[in-house]
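hey can u check if this looks right to u? its 256 residues, i copy pasted from the old doc so theres a chance i mangled smth
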Amino acid sequence: GGEKICVVLPDPVAVTTAAEPIPLHILYEDPALVVLVKPAHLVVHPAPGHYSGTLVNALLHHCQDLSGVGGELRPGIVHRLDKDTSGVMVATKDDTTHRHLARQFRAHTVQRQYRALVHGLLAEATGTIDQPIGRHPVHRKKMSTTARRNRRAVTRWQVLRRYEEDRLTLVNLNLETGRTHQIRVHLAALNCQVVGDPLYGGAGRTKAIADQALRQMVAALRRQFLHAWQLGFEHPNGTRMIFQAELPPELHDILC
């Protein structure tokens, strides 16, 4: 006892998100929303370490205005993809549309299909992973199926192709819930880590790939082999809409 602790708090800094002319791959757009294909390496919204060069910065430049429900750092953002995951996303331009889509995500009525190449050979043709996910108790950047504080998470998978010699499996995944890192955590729990995933062990298993050329391609990937190829939802006008995005070249070439 008796110690004196002095804490100096810095002055608050105003939070502003600037519009930036970042190219976007637009699939569909109307006055209510915009559907696009997010490339890998693009962060969705500003956060510590990434206050510029994000999808939100690009959308603000493209749309001029977005729904304000997501807050100053996440305007228009109703769902997310990990930085190194590519695929279809939807952003909203007004608060009514934002709330309409948010209700669908909460009710798990949004159709979300992913493609992933994973290490290991899944024995069954289809399956369901129903394991809760929460913050890892030790590694704060990771999520875990063994966390004490968790939320239910459900992922359904279907084998599309097995690469027997290289011990790889191409799978289609359907998300019933949308927890942080859900697919990557669930597949890691099956010891079938996503190829190229540095956080959950996928990058560490590259040496086991038998084909030398394929092994070199995977080692040079610099992202995880995870792509949101289909997104379906109900538009505020009542129309059911489904959008798809083909695998980007760096993933497609690995399968050829």
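The radius of gyration is 20 Å.
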